[in-house]
Amino acid sequence: MAKTASSRKWLARQQTDPYVKRAQREGYRSRAAYKLLEIQEKDRILRPGLRVVDLGAAPGSWSQIAARLVGRGGRVVALDLLPMTPLPGVVLLQGDVREPAVLEELVTQLDGAPLDLLLSDMAPNITGLSAVDQPRSIHLVEIALELVRERLQPGGVFVVKAFQGEGFDQMLADIRQSFQRVVTRKPKSSRPQSRELYLVAKGFHP
Ligand SMILES: C[S@@+](CC[C@H](N)C(=O)[O-])C[C@H]1O[C@@H](n2cnc3c(N)ncnc32)[C@H](O)[C@@H]1O
To answer: What does UniProt list as catalytic (predicted)?
Structure first.
């Protein structure tokens, strides 16, 4: 099948990207691993025994890291639209976070107990049209924030990918209302030309 210009560009970037090579060498499922590892180094969000949900988890590098760091006493539930290859120590769910039945299943997998940490690296399929992509990405953050407000322990932590643009400031203000401290992180492994960044929100108060 003929390759489109954008898939050729993607392939070329994958072949030269140092983080892609490093992920292959170090056994991570994607280069996204290094974003979470950098956040972990600065913010110390993962530790043994925590109960973690990973939204937008496929192919699974964040869950790999989370499962390792929470250990046997913790729990990691991972959700994605896409199927994922099984990962030791991780409960995998496939579905769309925008569907209430999928969220219900997620809550069931937590045995009704509150969460210590909600991770969301969700991103919509990018069309290149910011009038379409930006509201979709904000909507995904809003859904993750709803889950936070329903399920996070007081004092819990929320790490979420967001894209700078229309609606960002308002969404940030909304998150700030529920947390003692919110910082923005732009990991080195996040491509400089991308408007993505991560919000690390600590000290949840319902
Ligand atoms: C950047 S990737 C995540 C990479 C992942 N953190 C890792 O370490 O491998 C973003 C993911 O968000 C998922 N996603 C986007 N919209 C979603 C939705 N509505 N429900 C569930 N997952 C979604 C996509 O399928 C995609 O796999």
So the answer is: 161 (proton acceptor)
CA of 58 to the centre of ligand 1 (A): 6
Indicate whether 91 belongs to any domain: yes
Identify whether 6 is part of a domain: no
Render 78-143 in DSSP notation, one character per residue: EEESS-----TTEEEEES-TTSHHHHHHHHHHTTTPPEEEEEE---PPP-S-HHHHHHHHHHHHHH
pLDDT tens for residues 96-137?
Answer: 999 999 999 999 998 888 999 999 999 998 888 888 889 999
Residue list for the binding site for S-adenosyl-L-methionine: 60, 62, 80, 96, 121
The answer to whether residue 150 sits within a structural domain is yes
Please give the distance, rounded to the nearest whole angstrom, from the Cα atom of residue 10 to the centre of ligand 1.
18
Matching residue, tokens 């909507």: 139
Instruction: Look up the CATH number of the domain holding residue 63.
Output: 3.40.50.150
pTM of the full structure:
0.94
> What are the pLDDT digits (tens) for 15-50?
788 899 999 999 999 999 999 999 999 999 999 999
Q: Is 65 helix (H, G, I), strand (E, B) or coil?
A: helix
Task: Give ligand 1 pocket residues (Cβ under 6 A).
Answer: 29-30, 32-33, 56-62, 79-82, 96-98, 121-124, 140
Indicate whether this complex's ipTM tops 0.95.
yes
Domain of residue 124: give its range. 32-204
Count of domains for the chain: 1
Task: Kindly state whether residue 10 falls inside one of the protein's structural domains.
Answer: no
